[in-house]
Design goal:
The chain has about 675 residues and is an alpha+beta fold. It has four domains: about 200 residues, PAS domain (Beta-Lactamase); about 100 residues, Beta-Lactamase; about 90 residues, Orthogonal Bundle (Helix Hairpins), CATH 1.10.287.130; about 160 residues, 2-Layer Sandwich (Heat Shock Protein 90), CATH 3.30.565.10. It is about 50% helix and about 25% strand. The protein contains 17 helices and 22 strands. The strands form five sheets. Strands 1, 2, 3, 4, 5 and 6 form a six-stranded antiparallel sheet that branches. Strands 12-11-15-14-13 form a five-stranded antiparallel sheet. It has a five-stranded mixed sheet with strand order 17-19-20-22-21. A hairpin with a 4-residue loop joins β11 and β12. The radius of gyration is 69 Å and the shape is rod-shaped. It binds adenosine-5'-diphosphate.
Length: about 675
């Protein structure tokens, strides 16, 4: 195992990853909790905004109430002041003319009064003055119309011995217009005797106009109303918004009571009516936003947790299904982690193994001493990591287990070595397989030896056929010459030499076949291709003459020698040449040419030579091609069917290959390769 891939992270001891089993709330429950939280926050926000709005409204309302009370106070004190001024008109017992001019002057500064009358005790008008700012009020309807009101008011005034006011009533002016007026009757008493009355007529609109400060009427509408809400006089702005605030105050006057009403229109579409509401709303939005962010964060966390749990579960599944034992030790040699495969291998539980350093329980007692030494060297930190060394462990039940150990330094995230990580392969099965294969090998060899005897006999008979045939033909030739008396000493010598050569050849064949069958290392030597061809040519020529075949030799110039058992390769060449010539031995084939060709192998980096034997026979039929190399397969009457199978075995033993292919335009090419010397 290369170092880089052997780097392992510090393991988390044997504890199963907790996260994978941590119980998480079910999805629906989490969802409903979140929905409840969001709803609550929304409700809270809505309540806050509503409360802020309400607070704002109550502020407006109480300001309005204050304004109304203030307006009533203003009106009341102005009316009281007027009463005093009217009384002052009688000061020094003026003549009617003087009174009238003073009353005129008074009306010029008091627009709220439209008319002042001085009446005698019998209600007859002594003098009167009209306001210069309006048309005389009673011109159209006549004073008599309101006489009853005045009399009644004055009666009340006399009873009270002070000013009294009549209820308001409407007076028609020109062109359908009119005003609401109210009478004030002031009894004039001199030395305890009633001397007359001052009757002043107030215009209610002008009362609102003149007696209430402009500040109050600038932003709100002021009116006198009746009990049922009918407006008697109005002053102020037309409505500006939807939301109306109303405040009513009673103006108690002696003899009558008026209702003063203040209406204020608030800018209704104001969603944020004031700073408070705006603030609350802004904070609410921020809160909501934060809630969203929290929700998103939570989702991410949950996803990360899920991924982590999955990764841990995957890691655990991987560890559990691993058949390689894993063990981690810290730098002081204590076991910090073992995987289930390791526990199973040695038969101890993880708890029994954790923390052990010296004398691990799985060390065989007879080897413990050696292992201790080995560990001491390891912990000294100088030794390089060991890769693939064999050792023996002991199972809890005492069985010895051969193991293959691969060790690597344990590097943490910071790149610091924190211990050692080791992987263990149980070699028992492998040993068993090795044992089995050795036994079967032996058995095979025994069988092979038996087969060898038969094989040798067949091969010998096949390969000896040719030299024996040659010897026989030379002997027959010589005998004929002797018998006919045509012999010369030289001819006889040549014949005898040829016979001796072939006999020698037969001897070599026997030895080669014997060696070959015994699978001994054949006597390999460097032989030039030309030498190989030269050795087989006499026999090939003999056969060629017999079968009327023309031989062609084509040896590329300057070819290096090949490394081979020359006798066996010569036999191969002989066999191929003989097969080619026999294939052309048919009456249909008139031009019989056999080509022997040697050249460098076009592929194979030219490290091999290629020998080819081409004939122009009928070629090889597909069904024949399939069994060509099967021993004892032949199509010939006196064939043995061993030639090609022998050739292939010989060539393959030399590290070459034997092939055949159709020859153009007809025939077959057999070619084989041999390595260069
Ligand atoms: P044998 O020559 O004794 O028959 P071989 O193993 O040498 O045995 O050949 C097996 C068969 O392959 C031959 O019987 C023949 O049918 C076929 N054969 C071999 N060489 C050729 C060839 N050059 N052309 C056609 N057929 C061939």
């Amino acid at each position: 195992m290369p170092r880089a891939t052997a780097r392992a992270r510090a393991p988390r001891a044997v504890k199963a990853p907790r996260l994978a089993t941590t119980r998480m709330p079910p999805e629906w429950r989490r969802r409903s909790l979140w929905s409840a939280l969001v709803l609550l926050v929304l409700a809270l926000l809505a309540t806050l905004v509503w409360l802020a709005g309400r607070y704002e409204a109550s502020q407006v309302q109480s300001r309005l109430e204050r304004d109304a009370a203030e307006a009533v106070g203003e009106v009341r004190s102005a009316l009281t002041r007027n009463v005093q001024s009217l009384q002052a008109l009688q000061f020094n017992e003026p003549t009617p003319q003087v009174w009238m001019s003073e009353a005129q002057a008074f009306l010029r500064v008091h627009r709220e009064l439209v008319r002042i009358e001085w009446r005698d005790p019998a209600q007859k008008i002594t003098a009167q003055a009209e306001s210069p700012f309006s048309v005389p009020v009673f011109d159209r309807s006549g004073r008599a119309h309101s006489q009853a009101d005045v009399v009644q008011t004055c009666a009340a005034a006399r009873r009270l011995s002070g000013p009294a006011y009549s209820g308001s009533y409407f007076v028609l002016l020109a062109e359908g217009l009119g005003i609401e007026v109210m009478e004030l009757c002031l009894p004039l008493v001199t030395a305890g005797r009633l001397t007359g009355y001052v009757v002043a007529t107030y215009s209610l609109p002008e009362v609102l106009n003149e007696l209430i400060s402009r500040q109050l009427t600038r932003s709100q509408e002021v009116s006198f109303t009746e009990g049922d809400g009918t407006r008697l006089a109005i002053r102020g702005l037309a409505r500006r918004g939807d939301r109306v605030f109303t405040a009513q105050q009673l103006l108690d006057l002696s003899g009558t009571t008026l209702v003063l009403r203040l209406d204020s229109w608030q800018g209704a579409p104001d969603f944020f009516p004031n700073v408070l509401t705006a603030l609350v709303a802004a904070m609410s939005l921020a809160l909501f936003f934060i809630l969203l962010l929290l929700g998103r964060d939570m989702r991410r966390r949950l996803k990360a947790e899920r991924d982590l749990a999955e990764a841990l579960a995957f890691r655990k599944a991987m560890e559990d299904s691993l058949i390689t034992g894993l063990r981690a030790r810290d730098l002081s040699g204590h076991i910090t982690y073992v995987n289930p495969a390791f526990c199973e291998m040695v038969g101890f539980s993880a708890q029994e193994l954790m923390g052990h350093s010296a004398n691990a329980p799985y060390w065989p007692p007879e080897l413990a001493h050696e292992y201790q030494k080995r560990q001491a060297i390891r912990l000294a930190g100088t030794a390089p990591p060991r890769e693939g060394f064999e050792s023996v462990f002991m199972h809890k039940d005492g069985t010895r287990i051969p193991v293959l150990i691969i060790e690597a330094p344990l590097i943490n995230e910071q790149g610091v070595q924190t211990g050692w990580m080791s992987a263990f392969l149980d070699m028992r099965e492998q040993r068993r397989v090795e044992e089995l294969s050795r036994a079967s090998q032996d058995r095979l060899q025994a069988t092979a030896r038996l087969a060898m005897v038969g094989e040798m006999a067949s091969l010998l008979s096949h390969e000896l056929n040719q030299p024996l045939a040659a010897i026989s033909s030379y002997a027959t030739g010589s005998t004929n010459l002797l018998r006919e008396g045509r012999h010369t000493a030289a001819d006889m010598e040549v014949a005898m030499q040829r016979i001796a050569q072939q006999a020698e050849r037969a001897g070599k064949v026997i030895k080669s076949v014997h060696d070959f069958v015994r699978r001994r290392d054949q006597a390999r030597e460097a032989v030039t291709p030309q030498a190989l061809l030269d050795a087989v040519m006499p026999l090939v020529n003999l056969q060629a003459r017999k079968l009327v075949v023309q031989l062609q030799l084509r040896v590329a110039p300057g070819l290096p020698p090949v490394l081979c058992d020359r006798t066996m390769v010569e036999q191969v060449l002989l066999n191929l040449a003989r097969n080619g010539m026999q294939a052309m031995d048919s009456p249909d084939i008139t031009r019989r040419v056999l080509l022997l060709d040697v050249k460098r192998h076009p592929d194979a980096d030219e490290r091999q030579l290629m020998f080819s034997v081409s004939d122009i026979g009928p070629g090889i039929a597909p069904d024949v091609a399939q069994q060509l190399f099967t021993p004892f397969f032949t199509t010939k009457a006196e064939g043995m069917g061993l030639g090609l199978s022998l050739c292939r075995t010989v060539i393959e033993q030399h590290g070459g290959s034997l092939r055949f292919a159709p020859h153009t335009p007809q025939g077959t090419v057999f070619s084989f390769t041999l390595p260069l010397a």
